[in-house]
């Protein structure tokens, strides 16, 4: 990582560079929100995002709702498969992850953990661990191969998966009277 000049500095990197370090930027943004600006001006009575606080209540109540649904419908086995702490905890990865990540996780997880488990249980017992290892290994192998064959040759591919959120205004400031080129002024 030390051999890449200006790594994680979006302003100094070449256009379409993959070295943007999204997790670091999310951590930095969180540090600014909680340390510099203060939570009251973001999530408190002075802020724009006060409604988000209701999700703390939802996070506390959601496991109880699943438990009550399981008690109310004991014959519905699928309700016991819903694990709210995992579902809600996975949302911590949303800022650096894209919708492509989540849809592929949901599809693979549903097919392997529900369809194959239910209808081909013996196959699932023998091969699910191998499937998991194959997916992990394939991801690592393709990461290395893409780097070797594309990045070292300075090849840049433009496709729908490159556009992380599709909204160029997502990086624009929303405070009043701040001028940034290409962004609207509020």
TrEMBL record:
Native source species: Acorus calamus
Biological process per Gene Ontology, one example term: protein transport
A Pfam family matched in the record: OPT
The protein's name in its UniProt record: Oligopeptide transporter 7
Gene Ontology molecular function, alphabetical: oligopeptide transmembrane transporter activity
Keywords, comma-separated and alphabetical: Membrane, Peptide transport, Protein transport, Transmembrane, Transmembrane helix, Transport
UniProt superkingdom: Eukaryota
GO cellular component labels: membrane
């Amino acid at each position: 990582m030390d051999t890449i000049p200006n790594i994680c500095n979006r302003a100094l990197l070449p256009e379409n560079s993959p070295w943007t370090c999204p997790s670091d930027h999310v951590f930095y943004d969180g540090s600014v929100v909680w340390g510099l600006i203060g939570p009251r001006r973001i999530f408190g009575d002075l802020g724009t995002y006060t409604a988000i606080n209701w999700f703390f209540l939802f996070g506390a109540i959601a496991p109880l709702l699943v438990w009550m649904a399981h008690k109310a419908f004991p014959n519905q086995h699928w309700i016991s498969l819903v694990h709210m702490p995992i579902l809600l905890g996975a949302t911590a990865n949303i800022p650096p992850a894209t919708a492509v990540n989540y849809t592929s996780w949901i599809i693979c997880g549903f097919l392997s953990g529900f369809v194959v488990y239910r209808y081909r249980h013996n196959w699932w017992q023998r091969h699910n661990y191998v499937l998991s290892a194959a997916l992990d290994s394939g991801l690592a192998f393709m990461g290395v191969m893409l780097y070797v064959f594309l990045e070292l040759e300075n090849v840049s591919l433009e496709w729908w998966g490159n556009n992380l959120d599709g909204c160029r205004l997502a990086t624009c400031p929303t405070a009043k009277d701040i001028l940034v080129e290409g962004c609207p002024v509020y």
